[in-house]
């Protein structure tokens, strides 16, 4: 991780220096691309995981969805004008390390790359991603919610086409709630009260404070009213950083208190130990997103003793009178500036995982929570009885209302570094080496110092 962070740092500093020279010539991304930018000669690619359906020009794609093979075949079967050459180079940090290495080397990126929405600014500021507005991005804007579109946009520019999202909810064990006579908490205050009640009765941990999920904690801080970053590509050297406001501190202090009292665990999530604990009833709840059923099922949860005991409720609120919907995760397809034929690559980014067959395969198999309104507005999706939740209509009751209310977030172009530092502060909280206040203040100082070292003019 350290190597990729340093690589990204030098890239951002260089990108800011160049943008300072180019700002006056910037046209906000709305003009038509030049002929040289628009098209190129697409080479015949030979290292594709999939087989081509015809001899049309090829566009290379990196993607990690579990059903990408099906999605790519669906797209290629429906197109005689372009074919996708797909490879899975890993996901999360594995992919991002490869992306950053290729950006720094100025070669090696695919034409189209699947990225999480919170990482788009980190790469667009390095001039690694194409603004898709001149290539018809707004033609598909109406297919997505306001929040989903904001997550892939930066000012007037659009750097990716969204596919799936992660509206958050509270997954819980119905057997534990029944045994201890508790109901899904509607507020975080009720969550803490229920956690104390279950512990006093000798029950399991009520949840988990994993230091390796900083994105989830950022979402909860935003739910409380925090606005961590302000950034506009029209003024790329300016960055607002507010990580130690009262809302941010309140959330960290809340979870630090629960962890300190032994009401929630401190196990890093997405690990073998954590999943073992989930399967064996170590945790009564899992604060997560709409993609969680697919992840948990794939990890072996919902089988044996952990089968038929799961349900989901709306995410508890900090202020029940003023509910706020937040999102954790979500991916999109971006066109890289290394693409041979950007017009053709944009056609792929707009069309991949957008056809009815692929979307249906994704949500029916609990692979993704799609953001395309053709699914979100369909009665079949709303009324679907989720297998993992024993037939509960989770979309209708929890995830659809959360997605429809989500307003989107402004992400900073230093997300990778920010998450790494946030993770370190969460680990200190777990170890009893920092209070929520101290962690927030130290995070603010570290991120401001880093941002300024990269050439940003920081407003606090």
UniProtKB/TrEMBL annotation:
It comes from the Bacteria. Keywords: Signal, Sugar transport, Transport. Residues 27-50 are annotated as: Disordered. Residues 27-43 have a biased composition (Low complexity). Pfam families: SBP_bac_8. Residues 1-24 form the signal peptide. The keyword Signal applies. InterPro entries: Bact_solute-bd_prot1, SBP. This is Multiple sugar transport system substrate-binding protein.
């Amino acid at each position: 991780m350290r190597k990729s962070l340093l690589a990204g740092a030098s890239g951002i500093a260089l990108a800011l220096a160049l943008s300072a020279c180019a700002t006056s010539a910037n046209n906000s991304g709305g003009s038509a691309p030049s002929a040289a930018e628009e098209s190129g000669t697409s080479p015949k690619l030979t290292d594709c995981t999939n087989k081509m359906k015809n001899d049309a020009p090829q566009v290379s794609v990196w993607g990690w969805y579990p059903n990408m093979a099906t999605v790519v075949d669906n797209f290629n079967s429906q197109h005689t004008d372009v074919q996708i050459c797909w490879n899975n180079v890993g996901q999360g940090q594995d992919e991002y390390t490869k992306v950053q290495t290729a950006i720094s080397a100025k070669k090696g990126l695919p034409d189209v790359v699947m990225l999480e929405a919170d990482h788009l600014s980190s790469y667009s500021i390095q001039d690694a991603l194409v603004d898709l507005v001149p290539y018809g991005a707004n033609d598909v804007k109406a297919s997505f919610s306001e929040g989903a579109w904001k997550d892939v946009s930066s000012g007037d520019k659009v750097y990716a086409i969204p596919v799936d999202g992660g509206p958050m909810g509270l997954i819980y064990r119905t057997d534990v709630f029944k045994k201890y006579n508790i109901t899904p908490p509607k507020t975080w205050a009720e969550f803490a009260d229920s956690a104390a009640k279950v512990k006093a009765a000798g029950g399991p941990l009520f949840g988990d404070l994993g230091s390796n999920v900083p994105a989830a904690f950022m979402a909860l801080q935003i739910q409380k009213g925090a606005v961590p970053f302000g950034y506009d590509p029209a003024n790329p050297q300016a960055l607002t950083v507010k990580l130690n406001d009262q809302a941010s501190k309140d959330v960290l202090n809340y979870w630090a208190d629960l962890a300190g009292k032994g009401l929630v665990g401190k196990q890093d999530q997405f690990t073998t130990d954590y999943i073992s604990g989930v399967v064996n009833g170590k945790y009564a709840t899992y604060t997560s997103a709409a993609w969680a059923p697919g992840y948990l099922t794939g990890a072996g949860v919902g089988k044996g003793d952990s089968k038929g005991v799961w349900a989901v409720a709306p995410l508890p609120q900090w202020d029940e009178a003023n509910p706020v919907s937040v999102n954790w995760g979500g991916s999109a397809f971006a066109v890289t500036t290394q693409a041979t034929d950007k017009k053709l690559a944009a056609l792929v980014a707009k069309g991949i995982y957008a056809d009815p067959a692929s979307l249906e395969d994704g949500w029916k198999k609990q692979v993704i929570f799609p953001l395309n309104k053709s699914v979100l507005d369909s009665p079949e999706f709303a009324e679907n009885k989720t297998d993992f939740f024993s037939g509960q209509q989770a979309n209708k009751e929890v995830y659809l209302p959360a997605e429809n209310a989500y307003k989107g977030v402004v992400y900073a172009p230093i997300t990778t570094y920010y998450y790494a530092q946030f993770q370190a502060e969460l680990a200190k909280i777990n170890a009893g080496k920092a209070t929520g206040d101290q962690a927030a203040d130290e995070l603010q100082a570290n991120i401001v110092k880093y941002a300024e070292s990269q050439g940003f003019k920081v407003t606090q």
